[in-house]
Amino acid sequence: MRGGVGNLRSLLPAIITVVVLVVLWQLLLPLTHIPSFFLPLPSSILALLISTRIHWGYNAFLTLSEAVLGFALATIVGVALAVGIAFSRLLRSVAEPLIVAAQVVPKVALIPVLFLWFGFDVVPRLVAVFLVCFFPIVISATAGFAAVDKDLVDLVRSFSSSRLLLLRKVFFPSALPSIFAGLKIAIVLAPVGAVIAEFISSQAGLGFLILAGEAQLDTTLVFAATTVLVLGSFLLYGVVLIAERLVIPWSR
Question: How far apart are CA 220 and CA 40, in angstroms?
């Protein structure tokens, strides 16, 4: 309970700052005579968000579900690869340069190619999210496994422990803080990857709405969809924070 209250108190300055900025935006924008198609009023954005003109729930669910599935796939593959790197010097020497090279390739340039390879359904969007999330997860997990206390590893090995037991009892508990650091970075990037993929090909989703608003010069729609995207990203980040506290309460 104290932790929850403390977290809310720590968020108050940011919340108050955002509220003040939005109020100033609402009050001062009409005085500047800036046209609404250039910068909409917060009240107009809110009116669109609560209207039934657009099914916000469906579009947000579509984008965030793509983000979560791609993130989950990147987590499984990234952590598994990090485990292999931790136990195999050969795999480490082969995989690390390839991982860095894959990260250097610009994702925006690669995503259109994914649609040519995998078609125009949900698969390339999941792959796009996977590519965006994979690097921070595998690098953080690898660093966490590499930082395990060597004396502790030697001690457990002296009892003729198997690699599986060593991984479960020593490596994973020690590396979990680093793994979750990578997960928190990746979960924020995941919705961005989903939206970029939706820019290329989609019939629904927040990326589709943003692109449609830009094509129609409807900046109110663009800001509204972006607001939903930001709120959804905060929600996903909060879920990862809760998972971190449940899994590794000793790191707090």
Answer: 6
Q: Is 27 exposed, middle or buried (0-12, 13-18, 19+ CB in 10 A)?
A: exposed
pLDDT in tens, 45-89: 999 999 888 899 999 999 999 999 999 999 999 999 998 888 788
- Non-local (6+) Cβ contacts of 95 within 8 A are 81, 84, 85
Domain boundaries of the chain, sorted by first residue: 1-28+40-53, 55-251
Q: Which fold has domain 55-251?
A: MetI-like fold (1.10.3720)
Structure tokens, 162: 């198997």
Q: Are 123 and 209 in contact (CB under 8 A)?
A: no
Specify whether the CB–CB gap between 224 and 48 falls below 8 A: yes
Task: Count CB neighbours of 10 within 10 A.
Answer: 9
pLDDT tens digits, one per residue of 176-213? 899 999 999 999 999 999 999 998 888 889 999 999 99
